[in-house]
Amino acid sequence: MKYLIVIEKSEAGYSAYSPDLPGCVSAGRTIEDTEQSMREAIAFHIEGLRAMGCEVPPPTSRSSYVEIAA
Prior knowledge:
30% of the residues lie in helices and 17% in strands. The chain is α+β, with helices and mostly antiparallel strands. Strands 1-2-3 form a 3-stranded antiparallel beta sheet, covered by helices on one side.
């Protein structure tokens, strides 16, 4: 499965979350660290959902940029 993650700049580096997996968040010093940490967080989150007998939400979020005259 391919989940969208949103990475944002923070005071200490970067933070990330996935809109399709509420509560699944991560952080890192670099974008690359944050992406890797988020991969691990998503795998752990899904493992936990399955262990509790919960349904794993399918990835449905998408992103795009729009250009406007500013």
